[in-house]
């Protein structure tokens, strides 16, 4: 990857498109936003793959990410709480919980930072009526 200095931050060109990164969110994505998006996006993608392999069908998946940062350490990210809300029919909480644990073990972004950032996941299951 190559990055180029811009007036407000840095820019890179990726296969999907151009990415603007800046400490000023009016000029681009803030680095901590990209970090959280990477963790949540990776977790969601791997979780979906695990569910597909287990033939568990879902109607919707939403993730909320709450972030704690340390003002004493350059606003370092110290904790990420990922709350997964899974909607579907005839879903079993225990099977989804086990699938989420498998996803965590296979998410490269979580594995990369788990020794320096406290990452917790919670699961909410919403069974829809037929």
UniProtKB/TrEMBL annotation:
InterPro entries: KH_dom-like_a/b, OsmC/Ohr_fam, OsmC/Ohrsf. Signal peptide: none annotated. It comes from the Bacteria. This is OsmC family protein. It comes from Gracilibacillus salinarum.
């Amino acid at each position: 990857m190559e990055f180029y200095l811009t007036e407000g931050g840095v820019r890179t060109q990726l296969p999907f498109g151009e990415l603007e990164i800046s400490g000023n969110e009016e000029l681009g994505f803030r680095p901590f936003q990209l970090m959280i998006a990477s963790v949540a996006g990776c977790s969601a993608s791997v979780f979906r793959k695990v569910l597909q392999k287990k033939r568990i069908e879902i109607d919707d998946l939403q993730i909320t990410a709450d972030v704690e940062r340390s003002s004493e350490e350059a606003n370092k990210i110290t904790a990420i709480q990922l709350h997964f809300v899974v909607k579907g029919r005839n879903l079993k909480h225990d099977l989804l919980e086990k699938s989420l644990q498998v996803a965590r073990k296979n998410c490269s972004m979580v594995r990369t930072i788990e020794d320096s950032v406290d990452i917790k996941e919670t699961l909410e299951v919403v069974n829809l009526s037929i």
